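From the pipeline queue, job 12 of 40. The input is one protein chain; the requested action is below.

Action: predict structure.
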Amino acid sequence: MAQGKKLVIVESPTKMRSIQGYLGDGYEVLSSVGHIRDLADKKDIPAADKEAYGKYSIDVENGFDPYYVVSDRKTKTVAELKRALKSADELLLATDEDREGEAIAWHLLETLKPKVPVKRMVFHEITKDAIQAAVGNTRELDIDLVDAQETRRILDRLYGWDVSPVLWYKVKTGLSAGRVQSAATRMIVDRERERMAFVSAEYWDVEALASSASAFKVRLVRVDGGQLARGTDFDDLGKLKKAVVILDEKKAAALAHAVEATGVGTVTKVEAKPGTRSPYAPFTTSTMQQEAGRKLSMSAKQAMSVAQRLYEKGYITYMRTDSTALSTQAVQAARSQAVSLYGDSAVPLKPRVYKSKSKNAQEAHEAIRPSGEKFRTPASVSSQLDREEMRLYDLIWKRTVASQMADAKYETTTVTISVDAAGQNVEFTASGTVYTFKGFLEAYEEGRDEKRNSQDASDDQSLPIVAVGDELRMSDAEAKGHRTTPKPRYTEASLVKALEEHGIGRPSTFASIIGTVIDRGYATKRGQALVPTWLAFSVVRLLEEHFADLIDYDFTAALEDDLDAIARGEQKRVEWLKSFYYGSDSHVGLRQVVDNLGEIDARALNSTPITETATLRFGKYGPYLEVANPDAPDEKPRIVNVPEDLAPDELTAEKAQELIDAPVAGDRVLGENPENGKIIVVKDGRFGPYVQENDPVSDDAAVDETTGEVVEAPKPKRGAKKEAAPKPRTGSLFRSMSVDTIDLETALQLLSLPRVVGKDPESGEEITAQNGRYGPYLKKGTDSRSLESESQIFDVTLEQALEIYAQPKYGAGSRRASSALAEFEADPVSGKPIRIRDGRFGAYVTDGETNVTIPRGQQVTDITFEIAAQMLADKRAKGPAPKRGAAAKKAPAKKAPAKKAPAKKAPAKKAAAKKAPTDAEKAAARSAAAKKAAATRAANAAAKAGS
């Protein structure tokens, strides 16, 4: 970089390229690719510091001082930033202007230790005007925001590292607890508990057709003046909340027959009520996630990922915001576009102003809207965006324009019809709504979540003009039965809404929280609904019984308010952490709770009584029923597997008994092996279904004629010597097979595996086909190749196998090249196309030379070209994994105990390190890196000039 240039650091490669084009040659824009430092792992803390920092990487005795390290993946990035900084005359930290972005900027400052002036550059949209304005209006680093982010990070580390081990020991290894994650899991479980306790009530009414000039549907509402029962009249236990008329099937059918016999009704009332509907506020992070879920079927994580891409490409404003406010220019842009599309009457006389609920002025940016002073229509950008980006941009554009449009005006007409039904006066009603002015509805209407007892809602229909006293023909009267319904399960959209309403967590973190809840196995998705697992019930029960405060909704929301207060400078980080960890007069500290847990009955935690004899337990391999014999209480309980796709509220006492009484599919005799006369049986084991070859059944053995199940002989008494017998041959069923339908021929094929396909004519090595832990594959000596499907194990020929082995095992020429999950441009280093493939250990990024596994929890759809290229670059920089016993790495640096803008960091301590490179080696490395960076910039500039 030439002398005198200004270095701008952002956190995203896409953002980097966009901003570079707006700033010109006097600036160099580089990316940190997110955070460069984080709390150290225990293994990265030197021995000298382990006593103070070893448990949490936080010195809880001395001001909760955190021990930060630069991650291995960011070592090369930091080196490039330091190189660029050496020849810069000013540093502009241009990360996002929320807590996380402010913390990234602070960590950059602490790590790079710049000797040139440092400025904080902030903006909420990436347009030329906004970027150039931001350069001219810089500020100092906001240490209060940094403190709030750091407090949240320390809080989550203390919470997770103290509570999670309890779950490992008492419920299941690999589980995690978190401040917001655990509260969200409890919400999902609480909703399922409500559904399990719910008692459905039955009620009936009558529907009919009323006709004048045209026919319309009417519903019975009163009988002899008494209000007919509706779903909302019952509580969750199926009992009435007020006095209403209840019809059973017989009475409803009799009334329907009487109305049909009468055939005529009289209009007794026609009521018309005008109404208005106002538009919705522009999107915040939370409402955008909700609407993307309802209208676009996007998960919260997917919506945030797509929004991030739109922001970084300059199409929308910053997508992490609690504000519903629009700038004056944005209001004018929305009104102008509404007028041009829908006419002068589409907007009110005065612009609409929406008030934000956020208390944090520092973080209350604009609402999410299209960027720029003039909004680009979806049609004008469709060729520049991918499908998901286009769908979300269209949603944001419509919502923003509609927010400045006029109210919709409508009129709802309700008609009441009286009928004499066999001496009883019954009343029917019908409603219809007509919009006299659509207003904002021309552009946008918000989606709706599922609601309980929706069957009671009136159908919106067009009604003919009728007057009081008109006689209408009544026909097609029919008795209709209804049942009350429990509250619907949470969807991602409704859970986001509930978390926000409770004040739990930040909308910008909801996506990752819900992703963690699903990844940890606490919930599964059935359509859009989040269904809790029995594992979640055990975890929530433990937390409720032993960490009641930490999972309390109000307490969790209060923690969020406290973090907001720290961000506003109203509370001090250290004092607040002391109160949380050690306790105060009004609060029992986390340390006290953990130190006084007492005995925890793991068996009781994992037990849920279903009936008097059946108890649901959650074991290592999933849920099962433990069924006791009431006549022999000391007898070992019988184990009955519970289908994994059976939701907790569906495991009623009746369903449990059905599972208990069901014929056992295991040990079903399939037939005799013609080669050796042994008996082939199919079993349903805890590790999955399989077939087994047993010795012939003796004449004394019995077989259940109804199930085909071999009845086991009584076990020998304890102490009796038992001769060792050879283990029988077994074979696991394929995923496409079922214990109920497998036949003898298929079972014999499974037992014959591995199947010999043939010999390689060149090497003479035998090629076999078999099934393994990661799917079907071929094996030749030590060389294995994956097969596309399980059926190929039996079908693949020697010629096909040789063809598979003739292709490269990895890389661009592999046989899976055409079925890559995603493909990008050529990597700037290797020059080869970057692809995402699905491997045995999960999806991974590759350029044919370097492979990088995509981290758990990150979706393939989240990976862009820039992220993929950075992952490959980081992997190359890291080099091969070090062997055990290698020399210790350079010790990471601790964070300075006090922060003042800009804060100085304490000098890093050093442990035994590898031999440092010579000056010549350093110069050569810098030269190579500089040449590569220059070539990449030149290529990007040429590509931009060509477009």
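Job complete. The CA atoms of residues 294 and 516 lie 21 Å apart.
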